[in-house]
Amino acid sequence: MSDFQSFGFGQNDAAIATRAKKFKGEKGVTYRIGFALWPGMEEGTDFTVDSLSPADGAPDESLTPKFIAAPRHYVQANGSSFYCLDKGPEFAKIIGKPAKTGVATVIAVWPLEQGKPTKASLFGSKPQVLPWIISLDKYERFKKMHLSGYPMWDWDISAECTESGFQKFDFLPAKDNIFKAMLKSTSPDGQAVAQFVIERARSLAPTLGRELGLDLTVDQLRERMGLDVSSPTGAMGGTAAGAGEVEDLIGSMLDD
Predict the structure, then answer these.
(1) Angle 41-169-131 (CA atoms, 0-180°, nearest 5)?
(2) How do the residues of the chain divide into helix, strand and coil, expressed in percent and rounded to 5?
(3) Which is deepest, 11, 43, 109, 242, by most CB within 10 Å?
(4) In this structure, is the dihedral angle defined by the CA atoms of residues 225, 231, 233 and 234, taken in order, positive or negative?
(5) Domain limits of the chain?
(6) How far apart are CA 37 and CA 40, in angstroms?
(7) Which residues, including other chains, have CB under 8 Å from residue 20's CB and lie 6 or more apart?
(8) Residue 77, class by beta-carbon neighbours within 10 Å (0-12 exposed, 13-18 middle, 19+ buried)?
(9) Which of 160, 168, 182 has the alpha carbon at shortest distance from 138?
(10) Into which CATH architecture does domain 30-225 fall?
(11) pLDDT 10s per residue in the chain (256 long)?
(12) CA distances to 69, 99, 107, 142, 233 from 145, in Å
């Protein structure tokens, strides 16, 4: 999974300076969550209900959703807060604490009716398909669930947000995987929802890495924190040659 994308001036560049909306729970709300990024979902492949079942003879836990991870720092300084990727000991020295591993994936947050998925809720509006950045501890909890008889290709997760500031949740396995049910559906509405999830997950996958944090140099980090930098990172001084100047310069060189 690459973080690079191809674009040109005015062509496919609308979203390069923005980050996707990420999943954030609200205290007291229970969510129905399913993992939405799976092996075989790469662009140009045919992702079907069979893609959400282990290969013949393979153990249930062998099929797992996809994640990426990187060490990162949470920085509060100079009137702002942000995450940045770790670039070695110098970052920890500047920030004053070690990096922690962040884990990123893509999830489908399914619409509910009175806390439950119903035909009206599932077909009345599209699910939210969003990047989800979690701690290594949350990842280990999902891994334990996946390896203990609740494989994530066959189950969803019920997530009750108990604290919104630090995004604390109580997690329980939720019977059935709604995304898989939509893939299996023979109705046009069910297939439309499944394709929506696939297309949205595919669009988020190439830039998922940048959701973990800013990719800064040491000087850029120091500048964001309001500290002295060893070299300026702002705009370069001076101006480029004006209209006619380049032609005059080239003309004088050719006349010599």
Answers:
(1) 30
(2) 30, 25, 45
(3) 109
(4) positive
(5) 30-225
(6) 9
(7) 130, 131, 204, 207, 211
(8) middle
(9) 168
(10) Alpha-Beta Complex (3.90)
(11) 344 455 566 565 544 555 679 999 999 999 999 999 999 998 778 999 999 999 999 999 999 999 999 999 999 998 889 999 999 999 999 999 999 999 999 999 999 999 999 999 999 999 999 999 999 999 999 999 999 999 999 999 999 999 999 999 999 999 999 999 999 999 999 999 999 999 999 999 999 999 999 999 999 999 999 998 875 544 444 455 555 666 665 565 555 5
(12) 19, 26, 16, 5, 46
Q: What is the CA radius of gyration of the chain?
A: 24
Taking the C-alpha atoms of residue 256 and residue 252, their distance in angstroms, rounded to an integer, is 6
Nearest to residue 25, comparing CAs of 196, 168, 219, 183? 168
Grouping H, G, I as helix, E, B as strand and the rest as coil, residue 246 is helix
- The secondary structure of 42-92 as a DSSP string is STTS---GGGGSPPTT--GGGS----EEEEEEEEEETTEEEEEE--SHHHH
